[in-house]
Specification:
The protein has 4 helices and 9 strands. Helix content is 29%, strand content 24%. By secondary structure, the chain is of the alpha/beta class. It has a 3-stranded parallel sheet with strand order 5-6-9, covered by helices on one side. The chain has a two-stranded antiparallel ribbon with strand order 1-4. 6% of the residues are buried. The protein has 2 domains: 53 residues, no CATH class; 98 residues, Transcription Regulator spoIIAA, CATH 3.30.750.
């Protein structure tokens, strides 16, 4: 198992049966962490030894394996999310999680809700409704921040 937080390459060179083989590792940072095992009788034994070193996998929460409602919409609001929740409840459809896509933002700025469609009071109500129905709400954020000198998240990032 190769543990590396940087770009790493492995070159395998085979020289023929009698001459052996070479594996050359190159880590961009110069630091390489490697765990090697010989052989195992079966996959179960390998998985157990790997988990002993790296940690055993936790069970996911029940809602995570349920139905997730995710739909990109040009226009969305707290009222729209509560309407979806109401309809799922009305028809007995077992939705577990609602996802809000980028249209919940103000001018495509992650971490900034659209003020008219997602007022603080409406967000509180929506959260209460979703919580009461024992569902979850996930706000999508992508790993990029809108470049805008008036956007506090952007300017704070630049300052840091």
């Amino acid at each position: 198992m190769l543990l590396s937080g940087c770009e790493t390459w492995a070159d395998y060179i085979g020289y023929g049966e009698r001459q052996g083989k070479i594996v050359n590792f190159i880590a961009e940072s110069g630091s390489l962490e490697l765990i090697m095992w010989g052989s195992f009788r079966d996959t179960k034994e390998y998985s157990h030894k790997l988990a002993t070193i790296s940690g055993f996998q936790a069970m996911p929460p029940m809602y995570a394996v349920g139905f997730h409602y995710s739909k990109w919409e040009r226009e969305t609001s707290t009222n729209q999310v509560m309407h979806y929740n109401e309809k799922f409840e009305e028809f007995g459809f077992p939705a577990d999680v609602f996802w809000l896509d980028i249209s919940h933002t103000s001018d495509s700025k992650y971490f900034a809700f659209h003020k008219k469609k997602f007022s603080n009071k409406a967000i509180k109500l929506m959260n209460d409704v979703i919580d009461y129905s024992e569902k979850r709400l996930v706000v999508i954020t992508d790993p990029h921040i809108k470049k805008d000198g008036t956007f506090e998240v952007f300017t704070n990032g630049i300052d840091l």
